[in-house]
Amino acid sequence: MTDKTLPGAARPPLGMDVPAHVAIIMDGNGRWAAARGLPRFEGHRRGVEALRRTVRAAIDLGVSWLTVYSFSSENWARPADEVGGLMSLLRLFIRNDLADLHANNVRVRVIGDRAGLPPDIAPLIVEAEETTRANTGLTLMVAFNYGGRQEIVAVARALAAEAAAGRLDPQAIDERMFAARLWTQDAPDPDLVIRTSGEERLSNFLPWQAAYSEFVFTPILWPDFDGHALKQALDAFARRERRFGGVGALAKKTGS
Ligand code: FPP
Q1: Pocket residues: Cβ below 6 A from ligand 1
Q2: What's residue 15's pLDDT?
Q3: Contact (CB, 8 A) for 230 and 50
Q4: CA distance 150 to 156
Q5: What is the pLDDT of residues 80-90, one digit of tens each?
């Protein structure tokens, strides 16, 4: 795990600083399967099991929001059978896990472009969101057919249309108005972004929202991810000092 904490940075005791919003790029399913001589789909199927473990652990660790990158706008470039497999896994996840998620007070949301999905999926998503709408525990946001740049362009287009129609003064557009129209709407920005499998990039995942996120990269392949790995990432987060463009507490104290 790469922990880029600077020497001398304030280090609160472990576990004291739980991120409200954790976002995860669940990477490495294909390599996990290949290493075992299994089809890629088996890696994705085991990835769903890792997701179940991670949701359970996030609840236990006191995380309020968990966003997972399940299918990106760019994943359509994969072979048709793999794309179809990922669509089926979303269907199965909602059918098999919705009751359990609901019983655990989890609120489910799905972000991404629904129009581009097979027509039977949108009603399933609506069912998951409606069933769990009033839940007050963890909010699980599943990013599916999600692309961050596409999300930003859609907001820009909508605002431009309103301005062109004379219903919006361009000067009134600010970060708050823009953010409220993103798919993530009222969600707090992710405090922590985790990427598994040793890759260290954002891949069009929440580029607006992750502007000030902390990053933890772990070599663990997603199907092997579990509560212990999540706790390790949260511990690394707790050792970071977030400055949001300002100066750190230490610098303030010493005037350095
Ligand atoms: C990246 O691994 C993972 C994905 C593109 C899909 C992630 C999906 C799941 C974990 C399961 C689906 C969950 C739901 C709720 C539908 P990769 O295939 O790019 O791995 P590789 O880089 O090793 O090839």
Answers
A1: 26-31, 44, 47-48, 51, 70, 75, 86, 89-90, 93, 142, 197, 222
A2: 43
A3: no
A4: 10
A5: 999 999 999 99
One DSSP character per residue, 82-150 reads HHHHHHHHHHHHHHHHHHHHHHTTPEEEEES-GGGS-TTHHHHHHHHHHHHTT--S-EEEEEEEE-HHH
Domain boundaries, the chain: 21-147+189-238
Distance CA 200, CA 190 (A): 17
What are the CA-CA distances from residue 235 to residues 14, 19, 217, 247 (Å)?
Answer: 6, 10, 13, 22
CATH class of 21-147+189-238: alpha beta
Closest by alpha carbon to 184, among 154, 222, 217?
154
The tens digit of pLDDT for each residue in 41-78 reads 999 999 999 999 999 999 999 999 999 999 999 999 99
SS3 69: strand
Mutating to test ligand 1, I would choose from 45, 67, 70 the residue with most ligand atoms within 8 A of its C-beta, which is 70
What 3 state SS string does 4-42 have?
Answer: CCCCCCCCCCCCCCCCCEEEEECCCHHHHHHHCCCCHHH
Joined together, the tokens standing for residue 187 give 């969600």
* Residue 204 · residue 145 · CB < 8 Å: no
For the chain, give the number of residues: 256
To the query of whether residue 27 is one of the catalytic residues in this protein, the response is: yes
Query: Which backbone phi and psi does 33 adopt, to 5 degrees?
Result: -70, -45
The pTM assigned to this predicted structure is 0.91
